[in-house]
Specification:
With 529 residues, the protein is mostly beta strands. The protein is 8% helix and 42% strand. It starts with 8 loop residues before the first helix and ends with a helix.
């Protein structure tokens, strides 16, 4: 089977859960610091890495081909998680950076070079098979003479959990404020959501140094290589237990080929169903998703919320902007009762916010939604797509901060969306029209407190492909929330309806802008049969 494009979700989901599975053993602090075998010292700096990436782009791309792919195939899901890193082999750059490694396997086929940086010099960590324990019958034993590291993770000082990991391709993630892994990030996305195969550049080299200031626990440098692009990355990471993590990212990109769709600061998540499309799914849990919406702050300061969908086909949505202030895939619903899953705790999954540094110019925040029928597939991708696409020989620079947190780091005072519901349109007690859909959106936030029924709050709705037959707004009894309700008459020949709506008072918006997208084929699945 050839896995192409964003549909490579099963691989992404596997990458997302393997580090968590490896935490089945509760680590204990080693009695003495472990001394790894290191290679010869060589000069190192970010500028040196940038020059290396630039020189690499001038050469033809060479894809890594494992010497014995059949042996790697045997290190499947079950075999891989049984390979455990020895806690006594943990490398400590200092108390904040206990470093451990991942083994190669079926889904992590290419070894990466990992080096430690100190005083302007880098020394490679030499792979040794005694870093790991594995069952006597493990298929990994057959490749130990040619094996290497698949990636790494940084543990917390108590050695019980890790807070950041890099594993597979250009993927990485942290566990957010509530110590629960969820969505993943990538260094770059190339041609996501197109009819042609997606390209997956990978990090081939890592250089790890301890932080130099109070806002920096660790600095991770990475070399990126792929058929169309090379790159040098610097991740300045800070972990704050209970608050989450901030990664300040500096990237320098060098293009071997033109790129049709360039995804900057890409995020990859999972959305199966929520209160919006619950009726489509036969599952005992009320909701299952790592993220429930895309949030954007535009260059003009408008706050936008786009609830996620699980469409019947791949859908790409573009939100045009100039110098976007930020965007992210967000998990707003934080109530356990809304998920009822006490094994994977979806209510604890992190949100990730991208904060551009400098002027990113004109472009679009793009959202790719892919059909899924299970939680094991990552089916949501978001990124920034610059208007000025690169050609062969071009160079690009993008700097940004990534906030791995529970809630958006820059909330507005206006009401924010807390729930979106769909139902049958019409009036109770009268025949319900088959071509009408009711949309209900709940808002909460500081500007809504104290606002009453007589204060003239009205929905403001614009849309394409349908007609509003009735609309109104009212406070939700016993809360400070407000509810916007409107019915849409959907023409039979219209498949997709785009809606822009918010609550207005005296000509001023009380809430963020809710951007909904309805698909007639999906609504048909939810109608009573």
């Amino acid at each position: 089977m050839t896995v192409t494009g964003p549909g490579a979700g099963i691989l992404r989901r596997f990458l997302s859960i393997v580090p968590l599975l490896m935490l089945a053993v509760v680590w204990s602090r080693a009695a003495a610091a472990f001394e790894p075998q290191l290679g010869a010292a060589e000069p190192f700096s970010f500028d040196i890495l940038v020059d290396k990436a630039k020189a690499l782009a001038a050469k033809p791309y060479e894809e890594y081909k494992p010497p014995h792919p059949d042996l790697l195939d045997k290190i499947d899901y079950d075999a891989h998680w049984k390979i455990r890193f020895k806690p006594d082999s943990t490398i400590r750059l200092d108390d904040k950076i206990p470093l451990q490694f991942f083994h190669l396997g079926k889904y992590f086929r290419a070894p990466v070079r990992i080096a430690l940086v100190e005083n302007g010099e880098a020394r490679q960590v030499v792979y040794r098979e005694d870093y790991f324990t594995m069952p006597d019958d493990s298929p990994a034993k057959a490749i130990e003479k040619e094996a290497g590291f698949a990636g790494f993770r940084i543990m917390r000082p108590d050695m019980k959990t890790d807070w950041i990991s890099y594993l597979g391709g250009a993927y990485f993630r942290t566990d957010g404020a509530q110590k629960q892994y969820g969505l993943s990030a990538r260094g770059i996305a190339i041609d996501t959501g197109l009819s042609t195969p997606e390209e997956f550049p990978r990090f081939t080299e890592f250089y790890i140094a301890k932080g130099e200031g109070p806002d920096e626990d660790v600095v991770i440098y990475a070399l990126l290589d792929g058929p169309s692009v090379t790159g040098a990355y610097r991740f300045q990471g800070r972990n704050s237990d209970g608050k989450g993590q901030v990664l300040t990212v500096s990237s320098r990109l060098f293009f071997r080929k033109p790129v049709e769709r360039l995804g900057i600061a890409p995020l990859t998540s999972m959305y199966w169903y929520s209160e919006t499309n619950r009726a489509e799914t036969f599952d005992w849990r009320p909701e299952v998703h790592d993220s429930d919406g895309l949030a954007i702050i535009t260059g003009t300061g408008e706050h936008i919320w786009r609830p996620l969908n699980n469409p019947a086909r791949v859908v790409t949505s573009s939100f045009i902007d100039d110098n976007v202030r930020g965007f992210g895939l967000v998990q707003r619903d934080r109530l356990f009762d809304h998920y009822q899953d006490d094994s994977v705790f979806y209510e604890k999954r992190p949100s990730v916010w991208i904060e551009p540094i400098g002027d990113w110019g004109k472009g679009v925040v793009q959202l790719v939604e892919i059909p899924t029928d299970d939680e094991i597939y990552d089916n949501i991708v978001s990124y920034w797509l610059p208007e000025d696409l690169p050609k062969a020989g071009d160079e690009r620079r993008f700097d940004y901060r990534m906030h791995w947190v529970s809630n958006e780091p820059f909330p507005g005072k206006q009401g924010h969306t807390v729930a979106t519901y769909l139902g049958q349109g019409g009036v109770p007690g009268k025949p319900r029209p088959d071509d009408e859909v009711r949309v209900v959106v709940d808002f909460d936030g500081p500007m809504l407190k104290g606002v009453g029924r007589k204060d003239g709050v009205k929905p403001k709705i614009t849309l394409s492909g349908a007609k509003v037959t009735r609309s109104y707004a009212l406070p939700v009894v016993g809360t400070d929330r407000w509810r916007m309700i409107f019915d849409l008459k959907m023409p039979k020949k219209t498949e997709t309806i785009d809606i822009r709506a918010f609550l207005d008072k005296d000509g001023k918006p009380l809430t963020e802008t809710w951007l909904g997208q309805l698909h007639a084929s999906e609504i048909a699945k939810m109608r009573p049969r």
